Amino acid sequence: xKDLTPSRESLNPIEIASRDEIAALQLQRLKxxxxxxxxxxxxxxxxxxxxxxxxxxxxxxxxxxxxxxTVKQDLRDNYPFGMxxxxxxxxxxxxxxxxxxxxxxxxxYTENDLQVWGEVVARSLRASGLRPGDILHNAYGYGLFTGxxxxxxxxxxxxxTTVPVSGGMTQRQVRLxxxxxxxxxxxxxxxxxxxxxxYAAQGLDPRNSPLEVGIFGAEPWTNAMRKEIEDAFDMHxxxxxxxxxxxxxxxxxxxxxxxxxxxxxxDHFYPEVINPETGEVLPxxxxxxxxxxxxxxxxxxxxxxxxxxxxRLLPGTARSMxxxxxxxxxxxxxxxxxxxxxxxxxxxxxxxxxxxLAPHFQIELTRPDRMDEMKILTExxxxxxxxxxxxxxxxxxxxxxxDSVGISVKVEVADPGGVARSQGKAVRIVDNRPPA
Length: 436
Description:
30% of the residues lie in helices and 23% in strands. With 436 residues, it is of the alpha/beta class.
């Protein structure tokens, strides 16, 4: 793989500023953001008043812990525009969740918000190893989902040549990567595996592709999957983080030269990690639930938003700004199976160690009697479709999950291609248990 480390001269000075400089800017912007939310959004005025706090109570960064947390239901309760802090006419862009699990959540952006969004995504793409003039194959979905258009905004700001292919039509994805000579690809890690399968189907060696860096996000993925993708494509694989409620993609990103966690762009997003049970703020280095407060958003300020993502905060390395450890799970995708907490990434981590199994899988939960059961549906890798090899691989996976996670599972190995492919975020859990 090529050395894609950006030059120090190309970085925004705040990325390598001292911690004191970063903290001073954060305090200044945090005071503004709290007051803006309090004075412009009825929900925040009501919640601050109910908690007995006022924006003037913030005199140091640690005082943020006095303020109430915001949860997704607050956004749903104020659907569609109740959380906007500017007149609707000043909102230049609206994005929204699908609403498949309830009332959609709606977010908005002023002209300045869009400029900031483009800046932090450009910063992320540069940290990943891309440079002005490079071709970016953007396979995130376009539309109300923030992924595709958010990446596009940053690609324009950095001066990339963007191929806005979106998701789906995997045969065409491969052809355009090859024909256009894309240096970078932005895509979910699960769909990257589908593209990898398509290279094999077309008889092409992905290691000969023009790709030099893949920027993967929108779902948790493990370092084992990183190695699989990097080895298969002979390219760098880095992690990007974001969520619509905070901004979209570009809240944090790994630096290609270190790949040791995602540097949070702390001049715009203030991170905390809390105990998910008590809400207590945890010191840096302690694992818990990630919480974000926006520092510069005009249309949709967000105060202490519970992301449900599990991680921990670490000191900066390639940049001065703190890192968040790779997200390996969410409080709302945790499975409790016979008293044991299980995350899909734990299954993925073991699957990637078993020779003869492809990296595609789904978890099915059932309750045939009074006890919950878990079945892992995976598939044989190419060349390992013989019955005896599949039986051995299944037994190995069952044993490794039992040893590492502490649960007994069933494993079903399908023929190659037998697990449903994702064209966006992977559907990892199929819950067929009867309602409680």
